[in-house]
Amino acid sequence: MKRDQNLKSFRLLFFIFVILILSVTVSQTVFAQEPEYKSPDEMGGATVGLLTGMPFEDMITKRIPDIGGFAYFASMPDETLALKAKKIDAIFINNALIDFAAAHNPDLVKMGDHYLDSNFGFAFPKGDPQRDVWGAIIDRMKADGTIDALWEKWMLSDDPVKEMPKQDWPGSAGTIRVACADSFEPMSYVGKNKEMMGFDVEILLSVAKELDLKVEFTPMEFGALMPTIQAGKADMAIGDIVITAERAEIMDFAPYAPAYFTMLIRRTEAAGTVENKSFFTSLVESFERTFIKEDRYKMVLSGLGMTVLIAVTSAGIGLAMAYGLVFVRRIDKPFYNRLIKIYTSLIAGIPAAVILMVLYFIIFGSSDIPAVIVAIIGFALIYCARAYGIIWNAVISIDVGQREAALALGYDESLAFKEVILPQSKNLYRSLLYSQFIMLMKETSVAGYITVLELTRAGDLIRSRTMEAFFPLISIAVIYFLLTMIMARIFQNFDKYLEKQHDSHKIKGVD
Amino acid sequence: MSLIEIKNLRKEYPNAVPLDNVSVNIEAGEVVGIIGPSGTGKSTLLRCINRLETPTSGEIWVDGVNVCDPNTNLAPVRSKMGMVFQSFNLFPHKMAVENIMMPQQQLLGVSAIDAYNEAMAQLRKVGLENRARRYPDELSGGQKQRVAIARALAMHPKIILFDEPTSALDPSMVSEVLNVMSDLAKTGLTMLIVTHEMRLARDLPSRVFFMDQGGIYEDGTPDQIFHHPQKERTRNFIYRIRSWEYSVGADVDIYEMMGSLEAFCQRQFLGRKASNSCQLAIEELVTGYFLPVLEKYPDKTIEVSLAAGEEGKEIFLTVNRKSIPDRVELFSKPEDDLSSILLHKLMERQPDREEGIAVFHIK
C-alpha cells in the first residue's frame, strides 16, 4: 500500500519533470537573420494573426490580395507564441506592440510599410463631455513634451524596473472607473503586485491627478473593453486602443499618441546561430522569469486562490440551490417542473463562458456587482443545474417501497423524502457530485472573460510579460493538475470517513 | 363502532376492478386472514385501508376516522396502523435498531435514549436483540422481516396490516416469522394478514376472508373456510391449494415437474421425510412405468395428483390413466424389479375408487 503510493508519487514527479524538460527545450531561442518576407508582395498564402475585436481584414486583403487567411487571438502573447511556433506567418498590430515584441524577441522583426496612420486614444462613451476635459489636458501634455518623455520611458528605455506614480492625491472630485487592457506591455499591463502599469496608464494617472480624480482600474482582455463601456460598467477604457472609423462610431476618443499598423514577422533561421545555453540555465531562467521576477508567484498564488474561491463558493451555493430544486421537484407541480426543465436545459445548452458574459454584460450590466460575484453566481447556476440532475436521478432510483414504508409508519410525504429517500440516495450521487466539482474547478478558467483574475488568467498575464509561452503554460497545467489531485484526495478521505462512520455501528444520541 | 368499517368500497384500475362494492366490519382484537387467487384485490384492500392506494369510491373508517376523506390528515391514522411488507422495506442506510428508533424520534418526539430502549425491547420480543447493530444487508430475510415487525410494533399501533409477509422468504425462514406473528396474535392486537401461506391463513386467524369476483366472496372462521367451505369457488380454491396435479405426456419436462412438486411439498409443510417419499415415488412412477407406456401413445396423457391431509399426516397419490387403452397394464413389473421394490416400500395401493383411477397411500 505504502509502496504503491510512493510509486505513484514517483511517477507523477517523473511526469512533471518530462514536461519541464520539453518546455525548456522547445523554448530555446533560435537566432536568425533575414526577415522571412522582404515586402508584402511576397506574402501570398501567408496566415495573419489578428486580435479579436480588430476589424482589419479588408485593409490587409486590399494590400495583399492573395493572403492565405486570418487567425484570431485573445492576447498579444498568444499571437507571439503562434508566430514563433509557425502557426501563423505574421502578426498585424500597432506600432507600439510591434516595437516592443521585436525588442524582446530577436527572431522577430517589424516590416517597413504602414497601414492606417491614426492615433492611440482613450475611449469614452459616445457624447460624454468628459472627453473634451481630458482631451484639453492631453493636448497640453503633448505640447509641453510630457507625452514624448513618457513614450521614451516606456518604449525605448532599457530600464527593466519602471516605476509608476502612486495615487497620492486626495481625489476630491470623485472616482473614475477605468476598464483597461491587461496584457499589452508596454502600453497597459498588469505588473508587480497586480499594479496596472504602462504608457497609457501613466498618462491616465497624470490627467487624473490634475482633475483630482481617484482611478479604479478593472483589468480585462482587450475584447471586453468596448462591451464594458457600452454596458456602463466603466466610465472610460484605455489600453492600446487605436482610433478607427468603426470604433469612432460607437465611442468618443481623446487621442494622445500617433499610431499606425504593420506586420511583425519571423526572421529566417540561419545555421550555426543556435544559442547554446545549458539546459539547467534555461530552466532556471524560465523559472525566474515566470515566478520570481516582479514577485509573479504572488499573481499565480492569488489566481490560484481566486480559482479555489470561485469553485468552492459556487459549488456550495449551487449545491444548496440544487437541494432546493429537488424539494420543489418532489412536490411535482407541472408549472414548477416546467420551470426547472427550462432552467436545466438552458444551462446545459449554453457554454459556461457565454453564460458568464451574458450575466456580466447584460443581466448585471447596469449594476455595480463585482465580476467575482458575477462569476460565483454564474458557476453556482451551472453547478446547481448539474447537481440537481444528478441528485434527482438518484432520488427516483430509490425503491418505491421505501416511500411506502415511511408513509405507512406515519411520515408525511416531505418528511419521508427528507429523512428516508434523500439520505439513501446520497451514496448514489456523492461521487458524481465530486467529479462535477472537479470539472467546475477547471471550468472556472473561463472567468477571465469577465475580468476575473483567476489561475488561467494569471498565467496569461505572466505570458504577456515574459513573452514566453511554454513555461508559464506548463506550470499552470501542472498547478491545475495538482489542484484537482488534491481535491480528489480530499473527497476520497471524506468517503473513507463516511465509511468508517457507517462501519462503526455507533448510534447517534445513544453511544 | 367497529375498529375498521368499510362501506361500499370500490377500486378501479384502467384495466381491472379488483374491489367492487366491498362492505365489511372488523372488530378490535380480530385476526383476519385474507386469501384468494391472485389478482383478486387482497393487497389492494389492505393498501386502501391505510390509503397507500386511493379508492375510487366508498368509505373506510379506521378508529372513527374516514381515511377516504381527502381532508383527513393521514399521518396520525397511519401511525396507529403498522404495515409489514412482502419486501420488508427496511431503511437500508440505518441499522436494525435505528430503523426502529427513527420513526419514534421523528414522529412521536421520543428522545434517543427512550427510543433506543423501546427498540431494544421490541427486538427482544422478536428474538433479535443481538442483531440490533446490524445493517439490513447484514441480516437474513427472516431477520429483516422480524425487524420490520418490531419497527411497526414500536409505534404501538392498534392494527397491523401484513401484506404477504412470508412470500419473499426462503422456505427455511418462514417459520421464524410465523412464530413471531403467532405470538403477536395472542396479545389481542388487531391483525389483517394477506397470505398464500396455508399455516398463516389457517392457524393464526380468528376469521378468514376468501376474496374473489371483486370482493369478499366468503367470510367465515378458518374451520369453515378450510374444511367446510360453503361456496363452490372457495371449495375449488381450497382444494387447489391443498393438492398438486400434473399431466404427464411423452414430452414431459421432468425437472419442471419435480420443481413444482417440491414447491408444493414445502408449502404444505410435509416435512423432509414425507416430501422425499413423495418426490421419489412420483419420479420412479413416471420414469419407470409411465414414460415407457406413453412412448407408445404419444398423444395420450396420465394425470397424477397429490393431496395432503391435515398437517401432512396423510398423503394420497392419485393416478388417472383413463386415456390409456384398457389392455395396457400400467403397474406391471416383476416383483423382484428394483423400482418395484422401492415403490412398495414408499407407498401402498388402496382399492380403486373407479375404473382407471388408482389411489396410493404414501407411507
Question: Secondary-structure blueprint of this entry?
Answer:
The complex is a heterodimer of chains A (511) and B (363).
Chain A: H1 2-26, E1 30-35, E2 47-51, H2 57-63, E3 69-73, H3 76-84, E4 90-94, H4 95-104, E5 108-110, E6 115-125, H5 130-143, H6 146-156, E7 175-181, E8 183-184, E9 188-190, E10 196-197, H7 199-211, E11 214-220, H8 225-230, E12 236-238, H9 245-250, E13 251-274, H10 279-292, H11 296-331, H12 334-349, H13 352-363, H14 371-396, H15 400-409, H16 413-443, H17 455-466, H18 470-503
Parallel strand pairs in A: 2-3, 2-4, 7-11, 7-12
Antiparallel strand pairs in A: 1-13, 4-13, 5-13, 6-13, 8-9, 9-10
Helix pairs in contact in A: 1-10, 1-18, 10-11, 11-14, 11-16, 11-17, 12-14, 13-14, 14-16, 15-16, 16-18, 17-18
Chain B: E1 4-13, E2 16-26, E3 31-35, H1 42-49, E4 57-62, E5 65-66, H2 74-79, E6 81-84, H3 96-108, H4 112-125, H5 141-153, E7 159-163, H6 171-185, E8 190-194, H7 198-203, E9 207-212, E10 215-220, H8 222-227, H9 232-242, E11 243-248, H10 254-267, H11 272-296, E12 302-308, E13 315-320, H12 338-346, E14 347-354, E15 357-362
Helix pairs in contact in B: 3-4, 3-5, 4-5, 5-6, 10-11, 11-12
